[in-house]
Task: inverse folding
């Protein structure tokens, strides 16, 4: 795993490592340039199976996004990512996947029009933001939470425009929102306006409507 090697504290080929990372960023930027329409990035767990209701909802969101004229960008893997890409393909839309080399669990799904597999998380995560005009976050684990909070941090600090961030599945996300409202805000760790960065819904149509309203 190249990321593991790079992150170990030891002498290495510093110039070569930097050049390889730079080439991967360039490949990512070139892939983003191939997206010929506004795009929404959909995050969520790779472990969601096709018989899970979340899969069907992610597929429907992907379909509705494509019908609304958006490209659908995901991490390119199975689970929620596959479902959203599949929905975009159902509607004849543009389906994009930015995958990552992992020792387990992650493989490219079969519903991608534009596909690129990264060695480095930081290059891949940049493309999720560079390509997108909004985000839909389905239930997921550490990786999904990382993507959620990185997106919020970039918006909060002005590194990107105020993109809509839609959390899908209120039962899953409400405890996190309760903690944000009940602990972070009263303790002064976030500003009142930071609470406005997130939207919560259980309806695919509502998710897409929220994105269309802000990106129009």
Result:
């Amino acid at each position: 795993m190249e990321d593991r090697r790079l992150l170990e504290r030891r002498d290495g080929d510093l110039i070569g490592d930097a050049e390889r990372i730079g080439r991967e960023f360039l490949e990512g930027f070139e892939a983003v340039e191939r997206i010929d329409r506004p795009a929404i990035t959909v995050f969520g767990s790779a472990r969601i199976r096709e018989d899970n209701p979340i899969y069907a909802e992610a597929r429907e969101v992907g379909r509705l996004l494509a019908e609304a004229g958006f490209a659908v960008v995901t991490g390119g893997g199975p689970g929620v990512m596959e479902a959203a890409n599949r929905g975009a393909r159902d509607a004849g839309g543009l389906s994009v996947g930015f995958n990552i080399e992992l020792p387990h669990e992650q493989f490219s799904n079969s519903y991608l029009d534009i596909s690129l597999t990264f060695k480095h998380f930081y290059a891949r995560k940049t493309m999720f933001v560079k390509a997108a005009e909004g985000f839909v976050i389905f239930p997921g684990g550490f990786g999904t939470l990382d993507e959620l909070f990185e997106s919020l941090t970039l918006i909060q600090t002005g590194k990107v425009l105020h993109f809509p961030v839609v959390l899908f599945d209120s039962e899953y996300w409400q405890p996190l929102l309760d903690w944000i409202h009940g602990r972070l805000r009263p303790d002064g760790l976030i500003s009142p306006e930071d609470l406005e960065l997130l939207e919560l819904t259980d309806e695919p149509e509502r998710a897409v409507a929220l994105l269309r309203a802000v990106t129009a």
